[in-house]
Amino acid sequence: MSKTKILYVEDETFLGKIVKESLESRGFEVVMESDGAEVLQTFKRINPQVCVLDVMLPNKDGFTIAGEIRAIDEKVPIIFLTAKTQTDDLVKGFSTGGNDYIRKPFSMEELIVRIDNALRYRHNGKPAGATQDEVKMGKFQFHLTRQTLIVGKEERKLSFRESELLKLLYENRDKIIDRKDILTLLWGNDSFFNSRNLDVYIAKLRGYLRDDESLEIITIKGVGYRFIIA
Fold first, then answer.
1. Per-residue pLDDT at 228 exceeds 60
2. Nearest CA to 77 among 142, 4, 24?
3. What is the maximum span of the chain, computed from C-alpha positions, in angstroms?
4. From CA 109, how far away is CA 121, in angstroms rounded?
5. Which is deepest, 5, 92, 164, 191, by most CB within 10 Å?
6. Cα–Cα–Cα angle for 176, 54, 115, nearest 5°?
7. 3-state class of 29 per DSSP?
8. 3-state SS string over 131-199?
């Protein structure tokens, strides 16, 4: 059985060596690149199944690289690594084609879970004939880039945050996702104000999905949420 090939882009030599060796010890094949200007050629040469890109790189940043990769491959999962904390950077990451976003410092366990989720989403997250940006959830079709939720002839336009929250729940379906992780990923921190915002957005999504009994966003008290697709 062939190994999952990862293109890992990181200009911090010591960190890069640790992450590369850790991923290889878990059974992944890792090709590491440190110069942003060289990444696209390496991508074309090795044809990876997952890209893990640091944002701050010499000569060309990770967001620019992601856009170039997306121009030639719409499907390969892209995970950003960054020390930045601004929500605007998160928005930019998704808008350039990123599938996930991990803030430094991170644990190897978190990175591996994110990689596994990205692979599962690529292979199992779409119905037959669906495009990269379309997934089926019960009666609904969810278009990620267009940020629309469609059932029958009705189409609902979602806000950016509604769309990203639903995407996050879907990618972690049938698993408990920690409330703090949602807040950190989508809002940048788990402040009281943002926590109340999350409650509002969860209520909105439940309202949108209420006509399909096979879909349920369950609150795990004191922990987070589980998105069930029966």
1. yes
2. 4
3. 54
4. 18
5. 164
6. 35
7. strand
8. CCCEEEECCEEEECCCCEEEECCEEEECCHHHHHHHHHHHHCCCCEEEHHHHHHHHHCCCCHHHHHHHH
Q: CA neighbours within 13 Å on the CB side: how many for 55?
A: 21
* Peptide bond just before 105 cis, omega within 30 deg: yes
Name residues whose C-beta falls within 8 Å of residue 139's C-beta, 6 or more positions apart in sequence. 151, 152, 211, 212, 214
pTM of the predicted model as reported, rounded to 2 decimal places: 0.56
CA distances from 110 to 56, 81, 125, 131, 186 (A): 20, 12, 20, 28, 16
Bridging pattern class, strands 5-9 and 140-143? unpaired
**pLDDT per residue over 107-145, tens digit each?**
888 888 888 877 876 655 443 333 346 888 999 999 877
* Calpha distance 52→167 (Å, rounded): 19
Q: Identify the CA nearest to 10 among candidates 75, 95, 77, 104.
A: 104
Q: Burial letters for 140-164: b for 16+ Cβ neighbours within 10 Å, e otherwise?
A: bbbbbeebbbebeeeeeebeebbbb
pLDDT at 69 over 80: yes
Average pLDDT of every residue of the chain = 85
> pLDDT (tens digit, 9 = 90+) per residue, 12-39?
999 999 999 999 999 999 999 999 999 9
Radius of gyration of the chain (CA): 18
Rounded distance between C-alpha atoms, residue 135 and residue 17, angstroms: 36
Q: Residue 82 is inside which H or E element, if any?
A: strand 78-82
